[in-house]
């Protein structure tokens, strides 16, 4: 019989962490480079818990440890209980029932439960639905093919990523057909010596631009700083592009290399990967992570201006491919301008490359 056991002792936490390796150790495409985020959140070592609660559980099939999950309630997304960091072996019967029951007991005020959201969209979200034989892009989830079957009776919210060859960008640059300047607008990059200042700007622009997106919840700059600071040696200043209008920051574009190309199997990123990043073969793929512009500036050409800066960096560092995502299909209109820009550059409609989903149910 499937039941949930609360994780309370250090021994329980070791068992909680072992679940990942027990499932993925024989899946070559799997990566574990997001393990630091899992540890930060499950052990409450984050500013996120100034406005959230978390309970961690082992999934037991009798006495056998068959999986793990965390139940999160964020006051900034008050209607939902989030089922985060879910991992489970194949073939467990009626798995959602004990999870929903436990969520009702712990959070009786909540109206919905969502499987696959992990605190905030900037942490992680979703279960993979295809391309199981390919390693995930850094920052995007990987999960085995049997997970969606566990949630087949729940409402599905679909997500996609897009992947493209960068050669069209470079051809447009060479032909002088990309926007390089606009009067009163300026492009600048992240300044690491002012990391806190620029992270505050990044958080501010996130919160004012994405509030209408499904599952969005406002966050504090301290939470974003927790994500940026550990990667300060991996990221370059060009990875966070700011657009300014007459000195006011009005937009940003975030991208970075696919650090998963540095890792194999389920190892987490560490010093050896940093050395490989600095001195080893070049990473081939970049991740187009986020782009946001204040509403009143969205038809000024500033999106094209930031994409031009991105294209210049991609060419300079020798990136062959870019993958952008993930994007909720429900929010496709919000990224329509960017997609149209890319499709015009490539002369064809971009098709989704990977598909993901989260699953929800009323409580």
Q: Share of helix among residues?
A: 25-40%
Low-confidence stretches: none
Question: Averaging pLDDT over every residue, what do you get?
Answer: 91
Overall structural class, as computed from helix and strand content, comes to alpha+beta
> What is the CATH superfamily of the largest domain?
Gcn5-related N-acetyltransferase (GNAT)
The largest pleated sheet is described as: 13 strands, mixed
Report the radius of gyration as a whole number of Å. 21 Å
In short:
The protein folds into two domains: about 160 residues, Aminopeptidase, CATH 3.40.630; about 190 residues, Gcn5-related N-acetyltransferase (GNAT) (Aminopeptidase).
Report on this model:
- With 363 residues, this protein is an alpha+beta fold.
- Helices cover 29% and strands 28% of the residues.
- The chain folds into two domains: 2-160, 3-Layer(aba) Sandwich (Aminopeptidase), CATH 3.40.630; 162-355, Gcn5-related N-acetyltransferase (GNAT) (Aminopeptidase).
- Helix 6 (195-209) packs across helix 7.
- It is globular, with a radius of gyration of 21 Å.
- The mean pLDDT is 91.
